[in-house]
Amino acid sequence: MDTPEGHRPESIAAQALGWIDEATRAITPPIHVSTTYIRDHLTGRVYARADNPAFDQAEAVVARLEGGAQAALFASGMAAATAIFQALAPGDHVLAPKVMYWSLRNWLMGFATHWGLQVELIDMTDPAAVEAALRPGQTRLVWIETPANPLWTITDIAATSAAAHRAGALVAVDSTVASPVLTRPIEHGADLVMHAATKYLNGHSDLIGGVLVTREDNDFWKRVRMIRAQLGSTLGSFEAWLLLRGMRTLFLRVRAASQSAQRIAEHFAQHEHVEAVLYPGLPAASGHPVAARQMQGGFGGMLSIRVKGGEAAAVATAANVKLWKRATSLGGVESLIEHRASVEGAGTPAPADLLRLSVGIEDCGDLIADLEQSLQQASR
Ligand SMILES: Cc1ncc(COP(=O)(O)O)c(C=O)c1O
User: Fold this and answer.
1) Is 325 one of the catalytic residues?
2) Higher-confidence position of 379 and 184
3) What pTM did the predictor assign?
4) Pocket of ligand 1, candidates 73, 74, 78, 239: which has the most ligand atoms within 8 Å of its Cβ, to mutate?
């Protein structure tokens, strides 16, 4: 196993830690598909629902990029996130943000609440609200998403983690949008990091996957891993292989998307057909000062625009684009646009005039020109 010690994260990602296949000297790994392994009664791998060599390299790369002790791949981002909550006990109190990935919010308010978790949704961007909601000795987990869907609000991971730890709570961060290129939550005090690997880590809109990273290998982490094995929320071998391939270009993709998103946000910030641009890279954004401290090298590829003329104008703008793809999801090489409120449905914090944009790696001038023509056409 050749691991380039002391190398920059860009080098670690590009060479997937420099591992080669010892059997063949191949520089990309084979796809391990076996579900079972030769073993004696005490040692060796047991069964691929719990433990699969196809995961080893991708998990090691993510753990290294995040500065954590270990990582675990899951069948989806949702499977990864829900494993953390399932490792708690019924009756435990948890804090989560009002503005967060809608499907996880729905699961928390539905399944998790029914199962017995006391879930409290708060304004996680407000340190005073966090302090007021924490119940020392009772609050077990604080869930952060930053930047947060679909308004791209920013939570101060360091301040929130310090407050949570004083109260005896763990902190988990959904860092899907920032990716380890821009933010490493463990360095800011978080205990656990979650990614929908479906998004930037893979980057090509061709797999569903999730990953968790832990600061330390402790009892809570062992419970999380046991839940993955028992529930069978494991990634497929081919998806693990694809993810490893996708991560080789992670830094190039995220930096290109962030640069273009910044340009697009600045271009449309003062536009005749745009009410507001929501992007933490704009100095006027309320989260900008914290984002500037917490995010390095850019503010991510996600932004939202509120279109003048309300819902009808926003929907028409999404319908008229030619280069942007009218589709949900994010973090792929192709740019996506969607009317978020109609995806999220009742209870969404997304205003009716909001379009969510996931910026890819196309020519930024082409992306701006396409959005321009679409806004002009929608306003006629
Ligand atoms: C921020 C965020 N977290 C979690 C998820 C869930 O990931 P998955 O779709 O892989 O289950 C998503 C998916 O859109 C997401 O955007």
Assistant:
1) no
2) 184
3) 0.98
4) 78
